[in-house]
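Its record is quoted verbatim for completeness.
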Amino acid sequence: MNELKQSQEVMILIMNFKGKILSANGYATERLGYTKSEFQQKHINELAIDTGSINEFLNNVIAVKNKNSVDLTLQTLAGDRIYTICTVESNKEKETIELSAIDVKKYNLIQGNSKYIKKLHSDLEQAEELLQEHYNTVVDEISKYDDIIDYIKIINEDNTIAICQYDLPNDHICLLKSTTAFKNVLGLYGEHENLKLNVNAFDTETIEKITEYQDLAIDAKGYEYGLECKYNHPSKGWIWIYLIVKYYQTAKSDTLNILVALADINAEKQIEEKMINTLYDPLTKAPNKDYFLSYFREHNEKNHMAVIYFDLDNFKFVNDSFGRKYGDETLKQVVSRLKNIEWKNFIVGRLIADEFIIVLEDVESLDEVHIFMDKVTQVFAKPFTVQTVNFGLSYSAGISMYPNDSLDFEELCNNADIAMHKVKAEGKKKYMFYHKNFKEDVVARMYMESDLREGLKNSEFSLYYQPQVNMSNNKVQGFEALIRWIKPDGRIIPPFKFITSAEETGLMVPIGAWVIKEACEFINRLAAGGYPNLYVAVNISGVQIADPNFVNTVNEILDETDVNTYNLHMEITETILMKDMKTNTEKIRCLQSRGVIIALDDFGTGYSSLTYLKQFPVDVLKIEKTFVDDIGTDRKNLVGSIINLGHDLDLAVVAEGVEEAVQLDYLEAYNCDVLQGYIVSRPMPEENVWEFLKESY
């Protein structure tokens, strides 16, 4: 075949699985202008200017071990462009890819010509009379092409061969001679009347390719090609066949002889298609995780790569606003934009939902990764469009490096995922390289989650109570319940060390329910002990209030404990209320209807909008400690203004974190209602509360 290709002026490039060119034939050096040694320093992407998905295409050739075709525009050393039709085939043993490119413009091919073999001429008898006189010439001509005959024997052990002629003036093709096996593959039976094909016998893509090749053959008075195509078999329906077609001129200038060999490759293609379906995401057609697993298994990587794991920030907004159908369209846009980034070697894949992966190949330095990520950022800088509505998207990404961070693809993905989630935790909209310390943090969180579950199961949690004092009469009027984790060895773990883990794992929901129930039971014990008017305030986390069953859970606890609900206070921050203001406000009003008192906690650290403050269904305003710390210092002090604001809104005002006498004097001067802090007492376990009440109530 090499002699045939050379005679047909075919450019042949041999490259490795990475696309690095290893050798080129003489015609390639002649047409593209590079010497053979210069070719060996090139990558296919440096020659093919419309690479688009060429990396993905080559990797697909490797992964599914198939032969395929692709249209490429090659650029010569002089800067000229050559439009080519290429056949690409991989050699697994040698780990090479052979690319055979034909310069179609050399043969004046007009792309998109709709001309096609519209029919096999129905008047076969007349056609055979015309062609019979040339039959011996046909046979003699075929015998000269031993390489074609050998090629046919290789792929057609069952002799699926036919000899045809193409009559240029009359524009028709006749089956002059064909073997029984040839007719059986096509489902054609009989001598004359059934030996014809119509335009619907092949799929549209095949028709377009055959049209291009045939126009090329007519103009060049000779041509040869191989083509995988779908054929509508009379009884089997659509099947895959492989055609080898050779055009060559006869003694008559207006007649082309055609040698056609074919093979039924339907079984092989079905296996291949099944493999492809398992390697590519059905929505975006981008490689999936199985593809990358196969990719890493097939490649004995010696160079450096970057694995970029990222997802879209707040993509739920798109699905919720426009519907899943348009969300899917947006995902396609994302993949399309990423694939069109100008870069030498990279593969874009989709893992699941709005999570994607990019593999950067041949990375020489981290600076290259930074430059590529700048290009990714530019992709997201442009608005996306759905239903004529423009909106912005951002991404969060984690990056792990091969081989520094791991030699295993699964671990590389996991490391990049860890880095990506760290980005999410720090505010999103950026990327971060993986560091081994990240995994240590993850392991620590895993141990923390396990310990939390065991602690909840073994009743290791306890409530400590810090008094709140009425500043008008200096009497205790309630307590804030603060959770403590007391380990079996007596160690007390403060909330800041485990609350975040409890929220991330969802364990805050059962822990929070336990806190509410324990507080209600303590309220009942206070009433039974002679203190019926003392309240207990509990903190509500964002995870709790976001739980769809939050209100039902609280109501069940209130009913079960039969507590005086006016003595149960719930402290909620501005930030939590604002996350879903409408829904959370409705939940708060439901609890207020049961008599529960709502306090706005840490006022001044969240949104602090007067408009929102007027809308919040709250009864108590609680001033955060950092504001109280400003009292008696050179820093600007807003506490007095906050107290006045709270009173103007008919809210009781509590100042927390009071530790100094100067702070106490200031709060008294501004008529603050309630104070809480070390100046009164540190948080104490329940057994100490009773002694405290005896001394100070």
